[in-house]
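hey so u asked for the seq, here:
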Amino acid sequence: MVLRSVFIAILFAETALALYIAAFASFRRRERGAMEFALLMLGCAFYSGGYALEISRDTIAEILVVIKLEYLGIAATPAFWFLFAWRFTGRKPIAPLAMAALWVIPAGAVLLRWIDDPGGLYYAGLSLVPGAPFPLLSIERGPLYWVFFAYLQATISVGTAIILGFAFRASRRQRGQAIMAAIGSLAPWLGNACYLAGFVPWSLDPGPFTTGIAGALFAVALLRFRFLELMPFALERVVDAMADAVFVVDREGIVTETNASAAAIFGSAIQPSFAAPSGDSLLANLGDLARKGSGSLDFAWERGDGPPLRLNAQAFAVRNARGRQIGSVVIVRDTTETDDLMNRLVLLADTDSLTGTLIRRKLLSIAMALLEAARRSGRPFCVAIADLDHFKRVNDEYGHAGGDEALREAVARFKSALRKGDEIGRYGGDELGILLPGSTGAEGFRVMERMRERIAAEPIAFDIRAISITASVGVYGAVPRDGDTVEDFFNLADIALYEAKAAGRNATRLYMGNEGRNTPA
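ran it, structure tokens below
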């Protein structure tokens, strides 16, 4: 009696667990496979609860009454297992005709038990097991029993194979869930095999007990692996679809997860551990970030099939409920295109749209830096202002299109004579500012004179006409002294420009200051 009570208590506990898991899953009925899983666990509850009632009966007649209830779970469990495996792994719902075919054999088995199978097709003979500690049913199996048994083994095997196949294709998180589910499904399968092989004493049906084991494993999957929750899968899909490379690293430096972009960017350079890389390698840099769990790093990544990528890596600590760091997430973003775009935007912001030269603000900014460098080194610094003569007359005669073409060509001719390190920009409407670092006033004068002569020597082609233009140029150069400013240099160059115009235009003048008259030197 004590052993019977122990078995009954175990079976009712398993029934309660199965009902709890079924209720838990039903609350998540919007999740993939949740309803099929809830019905599977409900079938397990009928099986274990019915068997608890079966072993509490004392006669064959009483046992056969209880088996009618029990068989609702026995017949439904393999079909629901298959359906759950099918839906959980992302397959589309089964077609109505296939669904009907799936339930033909289970429905037939239930029907034969409920009409007491007068032909003995399912149970050919029944008796009580001799020598058992309590009344247990001994069954002589009929041909239809073996049909149902083959169906049971096939559906459970196929469902388990589907889950295992999914596990080997899935990510680490999904793999743990799927393997736990597959192991749970193997327990009833192995129990049935032992039962048929005669390894179970007194012909005790191991099915209800093994379904309890399966239920316990499913409970672990529910609580430990967040089984049936859509959010981890959804987040995983989002992370995998990200263009940024994502590394999930545990506190030992082991890379536990990467997304598709990480493989696309780094390929075989990805190693399973950030724990002990050395040198200036990718993983050495990312490993430092991962260990800190915070910070940012900009670095270049050389590719074999193209120019290097410019990348930015950021690390974020992953902490448990007690605030302890248990790992890190390192996100690596390809900033190449963004950097190029920003550089182009900066260039556009600093460039005159008509002439392609520097705008006045950028020209003066560069001039200040060059002036300060010249002051520190004691080298000369030279600036010039060039003004196109009678430019309003060009606009009036040839229109603004002609004036724009004349200005663009004049700038191109000036630029052709500049050295590396020299700069030119649009100083005013038709005025150009030129920076000649390292040049004395006399050297700057000679460069500007060559430019002026080239402007005057060849008319500019426009439409079917030719535009003749000349330029006046003022130059000033000196070694900067304390207190000298860029404005001082340009003001003196402007004085020289004024004298070039006063001399009849199409001329270059050098500002000599107190050293002499402003002449061509």
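The CA atoms of residues 355 and 411 lie 7 Å apart. The chain has three domains: 2-233, 242-340, 351-515.
lmk if thats what u needed
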